[in-house]
Amino acid sequence: MTSEQEYIPPEGSMWPEMKFPDFPLSDTVRALHETIDEEWDFLQHSACQTAAGRALWEHVIHDPAAAVLAGERKLRSLHEKIRKDRLNNAREISGVIIAVRTLWFDSKIEDAINSFNGGESQVILLGAGMDARAYRLRCLKDAHIFEVDLPKLVQMKNSLLQAAFGSPNEQHQLKAVAKSLTRIAADIREDDWFEKLKRSGYVPHRNTVWVLEGILYYLSDLNAMQVLKTIASNCPFTCTIMLADFMNKSSTTLSNSSFHFYSDWPDHLLPSLGFTDVTLSQIGDPDADFGLMHDPLNLFNKLRRLPRSVQNYPDDGKPCCRLYLVKASGSPEKTIT
């Protein structure tokens, strides 16, 4: 039997060669991304970086808008990192965490929609960034989608999609799968974002999925807790499902100036706010693997084998940087009194 130190990946599970997207970026799209490169901050750039990961992992994600939303510079930078990782036989290849996280959210959104057993539902993407799920997830065909993000980002996203897919030629148009798609220019760090959401068509008594992917840890403790409490406050009125990723404390040290909010135990935090059912996964768990975590010695599988209370690796003392994928839900009949 092969030991972990002598690990040989199963046939067909080696990292595939990821081709640079061949979608032609127009001069207008390139000019828009030049503005992004020159004017946007780290948080806003992260939206394009996520899109680049989805574009280069197209063989598992199938996002038709990702390359346009990412921009050539982000695509080339990540593609070069992936190329070097493959040459070096890296255990974790660049972008894999984006791929697994995206697929986890995709699958949980579909599960949530199916759990409502028909009828209209709504999906709220807070800090939506360059997300294009409204165009690619068939499970959203009967759902009303609301994307909430900063005015600057909403405007740029609209401009990029119009420039790339606004052709009168129907063959080159990008059509939303969702029943409706509404973009809302609002800063979730401000107090008025929820009112703007309601004025834009959000119905508090309609079954709702809240998606907070790659956003909470950029917020201050105060802002993050306010957002979570606002979502939890809807549980007494209708079936509410929240999908979010949380960094632990050690992970925030990866960028001292950008990452703020953390929770080492989100499965303890969320019930205290009013969610009644909380499940937590780590990348590499059975529902967060997707055939991409095959090496037992990769970083994510090593983390999973350590108790969550362990703050540092026993072998080298380095901090254990974890990303938790969390599903929390509540409904009127289960409301905590």
From TrEMBL:
Keywords: Methyltransferase, Transferase
Domain of life: Eukaryota
Alphabetical list of Pfam families matching this protein: LCM (PF04072)
One Gene Ontology biological process: methylation
SUPFAM superfamilies tied to this protein: S-adenosyl-L-methionine-dependent methyltransferases
UniProt xrefs under InterPro entries: Ppm1/Ppm2/Tcmp, SAM-dependent_MTases_sf, SAM_mthyl_Trfase_ML2640-like
GO molecular function: methyltransferase activity
Family of this protein: Belongs to the UPF0677 family.
Name of the featured protein: S-adenosyl-L-methionine-dependent methyltransferase
